[in-house]
Amino acid sequence: MLLDDFLPTFDFTEVHVVNVHAPRERIFRALQDLTPAEITLVRTLFALRSLLVRLLGKGTMGFVETQPFLQQALRSGFILLAESPNQELVLGTIGQFWKITGSVPVRLAEASEFLTFHHPGYAKAAMNFSLEETPGVPSISVRTETRILIPYPAARKKFARYWRVIYPGSALIRRRWLRAIKRRAEQGQM
What is the total count of domains within the chain? Predict the structure, then answer.
């Protein structure tokens, strides 16, 4: 996996998989074109996540419902680390995600900066979507994995507390995201 090139070791992870009965190209296109409006509960979950940020007057963390979710992620602090068309794509970001007022992501111009970034108090997060075929199975597994690396113990401890709180919502978003990709690809939406 391309994800291994960017975070082969990590402190936290989550993995989710869905089987899709559609051509590989259609699945990958669905992944790229999917909008937040197609992902059940995403608006509610992001509103909960950003409630304190809004209450403290630090801005918003919302998404435009009709624009592709991945494009918006790339504009909000993620960077495309790698892509193998119709196979896998990897996004990454660096920040202090556990901060109540919201983390301002480290702005990266290219993937090599993600690899070489080593500053105390920050976490690296990488997330992929990969498509895998199993011989004899008429569907393609769409898998998403998120990995977080925090090499500094004090920051890791802060993140661990944050992860315990947000993990259920994070997992729900990823499962809903995968279901929406499945629905779009199987219905042939382009």
Answer: 1
CA–CA gap between residue 105 and residue 65 (Å, rounded): 22
State residue 50's pLDDT score.
Answer: 56
Is 167 a member of any domain?
yes
Query: Does 189 map to a domain?
Result: no
Residue type at 153?
P
| Residue 46 included in any domain | yes
Helices (DSSP H) in 81-142: which residue ranges? 111-116
Q: Which domain holds residue 162?
A: 3-7+16-184
DSSP structural state of residue 106: P
Task: State the alpha helices, DSSP H only, in the chain.
Answer: 3-6, 24-33, 42-55, 69-75, 111-116, 153-186
pLDDT of residue 174: 92
**Amino acid identity, residue 85?**
P
CATH of residue 31: 3.30.530
Below-70 pLDDT ranges, the chain? 41-65, 101-103, 189-190
- Cα 82 to Cα 3, 49, 111, distances in angstroms: 8, 28, 8
